[in-house]
Backbone:
């Protein structure tokens, strides 16, 4: 655990941020190093990320495996621990479908023990296909009553009041339409979901904003989560104005790393030496001192 931060303090922080801020800004992390980047990065006005996202996609990709739940929960938890050990930010965990309710019970218990603040599970079933494939791949939605059983199992498993189970609606991705997404969201709220994530692969935010507008008219609502990967022209401020409480940047750090590493590798092959890539690299001394050595006094 990072110095001065307990699991309980970290876990509680996300709800505190949601109460204090118009929108909570979350960055994907897939390693201890990417966790440090997410924590240390600052915008020109001192802007910072509020939390981290442990992504199934990036956790699979760094192991060279497809995003079809080939990386099991035990391996995923190892990545989570590596990130939590060197950071202080709260974390949201990408739980894919969550598995069977009996399995999700223990996933929640483990995440709570580690100090993770929330788990998002999606209402799909069968062999996982990444949502950004949309209808190019078969996206099979879970029976909504069975999915709600999973939410109830997760809520029953948690020990603290602070942990959150968030339901991810995949109806727009699967081509089932807005009305189906709204119906499912309503049932998930009734089952005890602490938040609703609405997902879309469209380049325009219009279908997400339409869903949110109708969702906000529900008699009972919960916080909305958005992941503007494809519809990335919309700003955090615009999302917040529509009622979005959490904005997740779900895969950008890993997507930035891959082309940079490939470019360096190809330049070395072309030159037969590494001098030509010096301008592309962090200095050796800087990387040696990048990580604070807390044991050195």
Residues:
């Amino acid at each position: 655990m990072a110095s001065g931060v307990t699991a309980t303090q970290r876990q509680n922080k996300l709800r505190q941020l949601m109460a204090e801020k118009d929108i909570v800004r979350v960055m994907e992390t897939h390693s201890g190093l990417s966790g440090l980047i997410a924590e240390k990065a600052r915008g020109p006005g001192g802007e910072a990320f509020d939390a981290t996202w442990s992504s199934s996609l990036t956790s699979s990709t760094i192991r060279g495996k497809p995003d079809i739940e080939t990386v099991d929960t035990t391996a995923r938890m190892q990545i989570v621990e590596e990130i939590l050990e060197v950071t202080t930010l709260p974390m949201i965990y990408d739980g894919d479908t969550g598995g069977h309710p009996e399995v999700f019970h223990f996933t929640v218990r483990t995440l709570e023990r580690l100090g993770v603040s929330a788990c998002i599970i999606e209402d799909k079933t069968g062999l996982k296909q990444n949502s950004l494939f949309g209808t190019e791949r078969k996206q099979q939605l879970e029976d909504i009553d069975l999915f709600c059983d999973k939410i109830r199992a997760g809520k029953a498993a948690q020990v603290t009041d602070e942990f959150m189970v968030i339901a991810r609606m995949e109806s727009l991705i699967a081509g089932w339409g807005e009305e189906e997404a709204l119906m499912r969201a309503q049932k998930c709220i009734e089952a005890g979901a602490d938040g609703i994530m609405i997902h879309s692969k469209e380049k325009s935010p219009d279908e997400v904003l339409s869903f949110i507008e109708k969702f906000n008219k529900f008699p009972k609502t919960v916080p909305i989560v958005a992941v503007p990967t494809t519809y990335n022209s919309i700003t955090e401020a615009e999302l917040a104005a529509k009622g979005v409480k959490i904005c997740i940047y779900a895969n950008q750090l890993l997507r930035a790393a891959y082309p940079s590493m490939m470019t360096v590798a190809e330049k070395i092959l072309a030159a037969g030496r590494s001098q030509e890539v010096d301008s592309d690299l962090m200095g050796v001394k800087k990387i040696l001192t990048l990580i604070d050595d807390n044991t050195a006094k």
